[in-house]
Amino acid sequence: MRYPAFLQEKGTIGFVAPSFGCATEPYKSGFLNAQKRWKEQGFQLQPGPNCYVEEGVGISNTPKKCGEELTAYYCDKNNDCLISCGGGELMCEILDYVDFEQIRQAAPKWYLGYSDNTNFTFLLATLCDAASVYGPCAAAFGMEPLHPSLNDAMLLLQGKKLTMQGYDKWERESLKDEEHPYEPYNLTETSVIKYYLPDGRTNVESMCGMAAKYAGQDEAGQSSTRAEFLSDGDAEFSFSGRLLGGCMDCLVNFLGTKYDKVIEFTEKYREDGIIWFLEACDLNLMGIRRAMWQMEHAGWFKYCKGFLIGRPRLGMGVEEFGIDSYQAVCEMLYPHHVPVLMDLDIGHMPPSMPLICGSMANVVSDGKTYRVEMELK
To answer: Which residues lie below 8 Å from residue 41, measured CB to CB, with a gap of 6+?
Structure first.
């Protein structure tokens, strides 16, 4: 795995808009305020030509112009890292205009973004063997005051913090709008992690029945233990592997295309094993379950060591066809006999901890809190 140099003091941050840009409110004001903050911190800034453009469909500009901007700025020696302006809908359409061979030949560079940016953060790892950061986009850095997750992202880009921990509260409903572009996260909900362990321990009551079927199975598939429901969430465990993942809405689009090189990637790193971090934006519970089925049957999970699952934007506290978000995920993953951590600070229900896609990681939890210790090896 190729790791970029960290952002240095007075370094240059480049900005690109391969998905949506910051042409409209509240994103434009947020982006401008973020730039003010970065300048005050001593950084130089290099905004790309599409940052304030709104001429595309689901993205800032035409797929060709977005792909060309992304290639040029990633390979440009005049900036030291890239932060995406925002997520969006159709970043997949720019991929045919991204010169991945040129990017493979260039020195690796930190790229920060999430959601639709999975189309680049994930492919940097699987196509170019280069690490990236799955985390907040540029406009979010304009909030006042700045949430610790945004500070964590900047500390990561500077190489000052490689261990991330879950945050205490999360936002169910945002208060940010055109009249309040600097509004911080509306942290009304207490963070409670959910888990399923291969020995059958879980703090999700709805999973106990199905978990019992797989808990502690031997090689013949016979269950040697019973599922155990731990209402207080008290269970110490850890697991290690190489981080890979992103937004499932985007990931399933790669399946069966020329951009799907996941099997080659996982074979290369089979001795490390893979920790999949996954979250969803527009997928409902059945959509999440279908996505899991697709990835499973494509062989993506062959060498998995564990799963980190973000809070589903459309699935928190709801049921469909008699199952909840935990069953939608875990009933597809039980047979792998690996730890599954859910409702984590990853993705669309902020705050979101920054994760280095492609890095080695050790995940440690006591059943109530968790941390992800990342190593560049």
So the answer is: none
